[in-house]
Structures are given as structure tokens and as C-alpha cells.
Amino acid sequence: MFKISLLSTIINHKITFAVICFLLSLIHFYLTGSPLSF
């Protein structure tokens, strides 16, 4: 039970991290006109 909740938490954090990175690159693209490269 604990492993399942821990796994879902890790997955949720990865999704959140991906969304934040996407938003940051979108803002960077809007401000500078060039896509942000990681």
C-alpha cells in the first residue's frame, strides 16, 4: 500500500515538473521569441 502511494507521488511530481518546465519554456519563447533549449 505504501509503495503504491509512494510511486503515485513520484509520478505526480514528474508530471508537475514536466508541466513547470513546459510553462517556463513557453514563457521564455513568448518573451524572447526563441525556444528554450535544455
Task: Kindly describe this structure.
This protein is mainly alpha-helical and 38 residues long. It has one domain (1-31). 82% of the residues lie in helices and 0% in strands. It is built from 1 helix and no strands. It is rod-shaped. It starts with a helix and ends in a 6-residue tail after the last helix. 0% of the residues are buried. The mean pLDDT is 85. The chain crosses the membrane at residues 12-31. Keywords: Membrane, Transmembrane, Transmembrane helix.
Secondary structure elements and pairings:
Blueprint: H1 2-32
Q: Proportion of β residues?
A: under 5%
Q: Determine the structural class based on helices, strands and strand pairing.
A: mainly alpha
Number of strands: 0
Helix content: over 70%
How many distinct folded domains?
1
Q: Any idea what the shape is?
A: rod-shaped
Q: Which runs of at least 5 residues are low in confidence (pLDDT < 50)?
A: none
Major sheet attributes:
none
> N-to-C SSE series?
H
Average pLDDT for all residues: 85
Radius of gyration: 15 Å
Question: How many separate helices?
Answer: 1
Measured distance between first and last alpha carbons: 36 Å
Give a quick rundown of the structure.
The chain is 82% helix and 0% strand. The chain has 38 residues and is mainly alpha-helical.
